[in-house]
Amino acid sequence: MHSYLPFEKPVVELREKIAELKSFTEEKEIDLSGEITTLEERLKQLENDIYGNLQPWQRVQIARHGERPTTLDYINELFTDFMEMHGDRLYGDDEAIVGGIAKYKGRPVTVIGHQRGKDTKENLKRNFGMPHPEGYRKALRLMKQAEKFSRPVICFIDTKGAFPGKAAEERGQSEAIARNIMEMAGLKVPIVSIVIGEGGSGGALALGVGNYIHMLENSTYSVISPEGASALLWKDASFAKQASETMKITAPDLKELGVVDEMIPEMRGGAHKDLAQQAIYIDEVLERSLHTLEQQSTDDLVQGRYTKYKEIGSLAGENAASSTE
């Protein structure tokens, strides 16, 4: 049984009521099919009302769900022969970023992603998915290796942000992020980045300079968390809900703004409801993206990335004005 979020309580209670009636029907051999059918129709309508009209803060809550699938979950579903690689050859290994070589539909690829834990013990091991500089340097090492052997790079983004601690700063956190962004911009192989949970600040951008940026429907991608923005704007982190509504951090908003290329649909209620089906949704978009990119020359790949990021933030009015000049 999946844990549920506060706004899902009416749906969960109605499902339990239906299950109770079905169990009672079987035990007592009393025909309650009419009542059950009525409740099932009501449940369907309730699900449409709740999941069909999710507010930004509700999407933030789903993106942070403790049972939400992680990078390793999707690697196991989408790829074969995954061989994880460790270390940055400079300082050490960072468990908050996983990466290695795998096969995708028979062809070799490099897969890299943030990795958080699903319980306290694993979260401590993974530093709650917040990488140190060695994590980003490990990712860059794997990207450069992919370039050397002409392998596409697939990145899964899922982090609150890079770790802001003293040790990380001493080891060059900002430089590591900046170098990844610079190197990814000029990488001569296809890069597809997919936001699968939270995409927070520079910690996400260090894996986010792709030819294609896709987002799961209930993921978020932002320069700062709603709590952080609330603390800055209103001097009070309790206004996070209001901040999330103004920040345009959800997949539908970012798709409309042209920041992401495609919004990948999720299972009703979130990706954690059915990992296998969610992987199928990702697979469809990933295969199509790689097929398109693999037809392009290395120069076109780099130029396409440059053009993509140059156009982000362009106002429709400015574009219209320039086209008439």
TrEMBL record:
Which PROSITE patterns does UniProt cross-reference here? COA_CT_CTER
Q: Which InterPro entries match?
A: Acetyl_CoA_COase_a_su, ClpP/crotonase-like_dom_sf, COA_CT_C
Superkingdom is Bacteria
Reactions mediated catalytically? N(6)-carboxybiotinyl-L-lysyl-[protein] + acetyl-CoA = N(6)-biotinyl-L-lysyl-[protein] + malonyl-CoA
> Is Transferase tagged as a keyword?
yes
- The main location class comes to cytoplasm
Q: In which pathway does it act?
A: Lipid metabolism; malonyl-CoA biosynthesis; malonyl-CoA from acetyl-CoA: step 1/1
Q: Which molecular function GO terms apply here?
A: acetyl-CoA carboxylase activity; ATP binding; carboxyl- or carbamoyltransferase activity
* Cellular compartments annotated: Cytoplasm
E.C. number, please?
2.1.3.15
For this UniProt record, give its keywords in alphabetical order, as a comma-separated list: ATP-binding, Cytoplasm, Fatty acid biosynthesis, Fatty acid metabolism, Lipid biosynthesis, Lipid metabolism, Nucleotide-binding, Transferase
Where in this chain does the record put each CoA carboxyltransferase C-terminal domain? 35-292
What Pfam families does the record tag this protein with? ACCA
Q: Which SUPFAM superfamilies match?
A: ClpP/crotonase
Q: What class of enzyme is it?
A: transferase
Q: In the UniProt record, which is one GO cellular component term?
A: acetyl-CoA carboxylase complex
Entry keyword annotation includes ATP-binding: yes
How the protein assembles, per its UniProt entry? Acetyl-CoA carboxylase is a heterohexamer composed of biotin carboxyl carrier protein (AccB), biotin carboxylase (AccC) and two subunits each of ACCase subunit alpha (AccA) and ACCase subunit beta (AccD).
The record ties this protein, via HAMAP family, to:
AcetylCoA_CT_alpha
- Give the protein family: Belongs to the AccA family.
- For this entry, the protein name equals Acetyl-coenzyme A carboxylase carboxyl transferase subunit alpha
**Which organism does this sequence originate in?**
Salibacterium salarium
Taxonomic classification: Bacteria, Bacillati, Bacillota, Bacilli, Bacillales
Point out the gene that encodes the protein. Answer: accA
